[in-house]
């Protein structure tokens, strides 16, 4: 009997080790997972013509909708709305502003109808005329004190577990991971390292030109709205060239706003590249959309090009065992 129990323990222990050894354990064994593993194996095997030298293994990830949700609103827009609510009592002059009124009443339809002009107004009120240090502190305070209304989780707990594993898997195989997103660079840099293991210098996003000055206590950079650069669509390859200085070998996105970045990557003349689109198909565990997203993340042209180019399309409902890490977030 003791021998049987010992043998069972050994066998169970072996199975447990085998399961733990799977770096993509949050992925189901679908064609998407197989494509990722095959490309990485080919890219890291020196004996194959598909080998990519470590110095060239730069890979880029969109953030909103690719590494964390962007429905029903992007997290940064939710931050801006919450900041307007927090700051409004200190600014009675805001009362007559319709965008402020919409934010105070959670009137997302009015904010959406205002388009880019409305978003810029919210950013003016919450992202400018403030030092970079104070802005980072405000973002940190918001992350610590606010939770997603549907899932009840802190926003920094809502990174997609399969994509976080993918980031680790790539880094373990010698790849350098970058974020290239339409989100604000200063906003993402506050939480990217903690959430994804991506340091601030490997985060590329939308930005404006700050103003440097000497102060009684030293120096400061103050955020402004001058020279705003929206890192989306055709601007993404431009930003990649500006910040990275070389063409990536893999790109991961979820929307038509990522298409130019993926096309730029796929056109790398020196290496066999990889492209992946996250398709939001899971209304129960996250959200389901493509052509008609709740706010942003439209995916129409990207699906067509993915089929033409042979890029991997991840059906979230089918490909992922989990969406959020159950140890952090309940769904």
From TrEMBL:
Residues 1-20 form the signal peptide. The keyword DNA repair does not apply. Pathway: Amino-acid biosynthesis; L-serine biosynthesis; L-serine from 3-phospho-D-glycerate: step 3/3. One of its GO terms (molecular function) is hydrolase activity. The keyword Nucleotide-binding does not apply. It catalyses: O-phospho-D-serine + H2O = D-serine + phosphate; O-phospho-L-serine + H2O = L-serine + phosphate. The lineage of its organism: Bacteria, Pseudomonadati, Pseudomonadota, Gammaproteobacteria, Enterobacterales. Pfam families: HAD. Its cofactor is Mg(2+). Gene3D superfamilies: HAD superfamily/HAD-like (3.40.50.1000). This is phosphoserine phosphatase. Keywords: Amino-acid biosynthesis, Hydrolase, Magnesium, Metal-binding, Serine biosynthesis, Signal. Its EC number is 3.1.3.3. InterPro entries: HAD-like_SerB, HAD-like_sf, HAD_sf.
């Amino acid at each position: 009997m003791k021998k049987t129990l010992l043998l069972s323990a050994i066998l169970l222990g072996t199975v447990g080790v085998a399961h733990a050894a799977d770096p993509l354990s949050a992925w189901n064994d679908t064609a998407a997972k197989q494509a990722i593993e095959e490309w990485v194996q080919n890219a890291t095997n020196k004996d194959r013509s598909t080998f990519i030298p470590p110095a060239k293994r730069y890979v880029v990830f969109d953030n909103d909708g690719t590494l964390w949700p962007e429905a029903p609103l992007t997290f940064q827009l939710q931050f801006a709305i919450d900041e307007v609510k927090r700051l409004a009592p200190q600014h009675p002059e805001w009362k007559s502003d319709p965008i402020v009124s919409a934010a105070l009443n959670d009137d997302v339809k009015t904010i959406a109808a205002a388009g880019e002009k409305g978003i810029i107004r919210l950013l003016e009120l919450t992202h400018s005329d403030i030092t970079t240090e104070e802005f980072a502190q405000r973002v940190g305070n918001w992350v610590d004190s606010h939770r997603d209304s549907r899932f009840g989780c802190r926003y920094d707990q809502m990174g997609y577990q399969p994509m976080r594993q993918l980031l680790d898997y790539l880094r373990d195989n010698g790849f350098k991971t970058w974020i290239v997103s339409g989100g604000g660079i200063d906003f993402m840099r506050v939480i990217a390292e903690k959430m994804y293991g991506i340091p601030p210098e490997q985060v590329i996003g939308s930005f404006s030109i700050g103003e440097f000055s000497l102060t009684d206590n030293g120096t400061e950079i103050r955020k402004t709205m001058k020279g705003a650069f929206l890192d989306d669509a055709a601007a993404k390859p431009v930003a990649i060239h500006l910040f990275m200085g070389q063409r990536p070998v893999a790109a991961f996105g979820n929307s038509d706003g990522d298409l130019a970045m993926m096309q730029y990557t796929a056109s790398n003349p020196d290496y066999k590249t990889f492209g992946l689109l996250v398709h939001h198909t899971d209304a129960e565990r996250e959200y389901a959309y493509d052509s008609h997203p709740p706010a942003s993340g439209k995916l129409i042209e990207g699906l067509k090009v993915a089929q033409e180019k042979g890029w991997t399309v991840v059906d979230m409902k089918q490909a992922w065992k989990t969406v959020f890490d159950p140890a952090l977030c309940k769904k």
